[in-house]
Amino acid sequence: MSALNIKKGATSHSAYDLRDSHMQVEESHTLAVIVENEPGVLARVIGLFSGRGYNIDSLTVAEVDHTGHRSRITIVTRGTPAVIDQIEKQLSRMVPVHAVHDLTAEGPSVQRELALIKVVGKGDARIEALRLCEIFRAKVVDSTLESFIFEMTGTPEKIDAFADLLRPLGLSEIARTGVAALSRGF
Amino acid sequence: MTRSMTGARMVVQALKDQGVEVVFGYPGGAVLPIYDEIFQQNDIRHILVRHEQGAVHMAEGYARSTGKPGVALVTSGPGATNAVTGLTDALMDSIPIIVLTGQVPTFMIGTDGFQEADTVGITRPCTKMNWLVKDTAKLSETIHQAFHVATQGRPGPVLIDIPKDVQFATSEYVPPSKARTDHYQPKVKGDLDAVTRMVEMLETAERPLFYTGGGVINSGKAASQLLVEFADATGIPVTSTLMGLGAYPASGKGWIGMLGMHGLYEANLAMHGCDLMINVGARFDDRITGRISDFSPKSKKIHIDIDASSINKVIRVDLPIVGDVGHVLEDALKIWKARGRKVNKEGIAKWWAQIEEWKKVKCLSYEPSTTTIKPQYALERLEALTKGYDRYITTEVGQHQMWAAQFLGFDAPNRWMTSGGLGTMGYGLPASIGVQIAHPEALVINVAGEASWLMNMQEMGTAMQFRAPVKQFILNNERLGMVRQWQELLHGERYSSSWSESLPDFVKLAEAFGCKGIQVSDPKDLDDAILEMLAYDGPVIFDCRVEKHENCFPMIPSGKPHNEMLLSADASAFKSGAVLV
Predict the structure, then answer these.
(1) N or C: chain A end with fewer CB closer than 10 Å?
(2) Residue ranges of chain B with pLDDT lower than 70?
(3) Could you tell me the CATH number of the domain that includes residue A44?
(4) Which helix (H) or strand (E) holds B58?
């Protein structure tokens, strides 16, 4: 990990906790939660967020290790540094939680989301939508004479930008997976 | 060697293998196979309660007074939902209990079957962990894991939901030694560098203070002994939360009394004025801290807690130590001795002189009366007349609970059972039965208010059936005293629904249950009445008619700091924000 890429508030490279929890600025953090893949575990994690009044901006979950019964939950949340710290500790103490990583605090990470976007239209709007699809490196995965479904993978911001441009061109439906994220390097 | 058996037999076998001697429970359709197994053995005693909430509070009382986990067994649906208050109570106060619930057969789950409820869904936020076991092959291992989770780390309640077909089906029994528990192994040793730093801080502190909590008691008797040794060797004063009473003896030379909303003047001012606060197994509850922004403004704060999420949750501390209180105190004591047993003698002597000044305020003094029994007087007499006994105290919730904490002294841990975090009215009577079942020869007293006591009074039937000679010491003011007090001080003396009308005649009620009832209203008769209660070999309902409008002081009103305590009901002083320091 490059020392230069440490984000504001990161603590992993410092001997001291540099975060001031009395600072009332909300930050967005991406947490990777490795859990035992068992019934109810997602409800347990979500219940913690609703029960203690924490935010969820995005959430994805899937089994990542079939033999080890491990699932990975990726949560994008918002809060003051003190709240983020509490969320991490509250998650860590849950019995079926094996590990919690604050990808935002631990260093640089890669974040990706997949979206399927349906655009309905004819004529110039349809051609313009296809042109934007090329510019954004999206893929056409379904086509009729009056519609496209685009598949796009990218950061949430890139998907937002793409969707915003498609809105006047006939965007009718959008399905997003939520963020999946991994820390860079090893 | 493997053993094949039904799920129902597995439950009983697993409980035996976990050393369980008593189960508190109530049968019903979905747990009948387990009750059939209980019927056919003699190792585990079953205490039939009168309401499932009672079963869970009894398990809590049993657990808190023995240090061992308590077990409750209830049926599906209403049995499980009635257990919810007890589970939440145990979660808030970190009490290790295992609740077994029956469930409709697996193939009926989700069909709104008779007495079906989503028990794991309902109890997920009020247990440390819960399981729905859908396969008999996993049942015994799950029960062993449940005991492990309930007792390791920060203790808490766990629940296992067992469908009826899983109880009937047969599979191999897994003994405790073969059960997988490796995935839940909380850290118990504190970081040694941090512990050394703690010792350095207390060596130089001028006004140090131990602020101890229920964590010391949960850690075990050794932790209490280490606390006593450490506090006495350093001369550092000790205050405690409601949950921690008895960890440091009330007769100890370092004891300065309970702190908090109804804590002692000297304890709260010591919290406010200390320069080093050592939080040992407490959690900065809002009943303790008062206004956060003015909480102990001049102190460095050290926090020892086995639960990392308790640290920096409410109060930001300077030195966090995650670990078991007993282990951390042991290491700290060793390091302190190795470094030459240094303390700031001069500073601490001045500190004690200051505390002695505060003590002169005599914050617990009250207006005595020769005509009516003051609740404080009743507790003073109870304390005096029971001091020599092997005594356990439980309480309900309200004024009487605070007076009990102020006027009764506890010299050992596990002797004081009260609902702290959740504040559950109706806790004390069933808890006292749980304690008495664990300690049949001891004197067990539930200090109660009449309103709280009525909430679970059906359990007197349990006390009678199982010959639990619990003494129900009811301070009867015919009021919801604490509610009334708040209405007097904060709601313009508008006493909305805070009096107890149509109260039963407690003496006749006792007779109806088949036990002894005593009523006393004249202070002159009080001692004899208490002695009569103590002499009776069986449960007693003691109706102590006390002053109806007595208020509990000192009091830190919500949102006020520690140095803005009320010492009397002079409401005008309160309204003008008078500071009593």
Answers:
(1) C
(2) 1, 569-581
(3) 3.30.70.260
(4) helix B52-66
